Amino acid sequence: MAHNATILGGIAGPVLGPDEAAFFREADPWGFILFGRNVETPDQLRRLTGDLRDAVGRDCVITVDQEGGRVQRLRAPHWTEWPTPLAQAAAGPRAMWLRYHLIGQELRAVGIDSNCAPTLDVAQDATHPFLRDRCLGSDPARIAELGRAAAEGMLAAGVLPVVKHMPGHGRAQADSHHALPEVAADLDALDALDFAPFRALADLPMGMTAHIRFAALDPAPATQSARMIALIRDRIGFDGLLMTDDITMNALPGTHAERAASSIAAGCDLVLHCNGDIAQMTPVVAAAGAMSMDAIRRANAALALRRAPEAADLPALHAEWRALTQAVA
Predict the structure, then answer these.
(1) What's the rounded Cα separation, in Å, for the pair 233 and 202?
(2) Is-catalytic flag, 177?
(3) Average of per-residue pLDDT across 268-292
(4) What is the pTM of this model?
(5) Active site (annotated) includes residue 256
(6) 61 and 160 in contact (C-beta within 8 Å)?
(7) Cα–Cα distance for residue pair 159/108, rounded to 1 Å
(8) Of the listed 177, 178, 234, 277, which one is catalytic?
(9) Catalytic, out of 245, 246, 256, 269
(10) Is the pLDDT of residue 176 over 80?
């Protein structure tokens, strides 16, 4: 079925209001994304995720940004406070698997079945501070190894990972929440460094674009660039479900509806709209339109990987994770 080509995050608070439920029922987005404003307690969050699925009448994907560190929507006292990914990269793949498996178990227990992680961007000297400690390091092969462990840990917990930010955000010297970063590197340099971790994990089910202008390749931001999306598909080899980064970020030109339309036209499968009320979401839903046949195929392939969480001794896994990470702290 061709659902609307959006993932919507315009849920005002911790409880789904009747007007919101009616809007989502009519809009029929492919999925939802939650934020700190939507999170209070485990019981409340289970009710909210259940109400969102009831609104669209199906077991849709509900995602979140639960990387750890600054980018973490579920926090203490009800959930684990995770250090930044970069701070724990030295602990190795097993520790990274444990970390993201435990994150996944916490998410799935409250009805969240996707996580916008791991970040596969390559940290470099000029990487903006908003991104740097969210990375897994500066060596593409090591990033790929740790990213694979993170993704497999989440999949084992029944949570679909979303690799980001394709085709690579590490060279950006501006925060794309506020302005459009511009990268001057040519295709060979990008291919050798930035693309490498994404190519190594190109088989994963879901990915997110970068709002970056790669000036040597296209004047449009990657999210809105047919050439850059083609590079993600062909050069990197990613045939998973590709969503935009949040189109309400200031890096992109035009109205939100224009951003949605241009992103779909460039080849993105889904538009991620994170902040707005019903009046702001309505034109975005109209502009995004129904999912394409390729998007439906990719979405179905992602959903086929969603499964019940593996049975696990969570206190023992936490203890193992603490031992591994404290050894390198």
Answers:
(1) 9
(2) yes
(3) 97
(4) 0.97
(5) no
(6) yes
(7) 7
(8) 177
(9) 245
(10) no
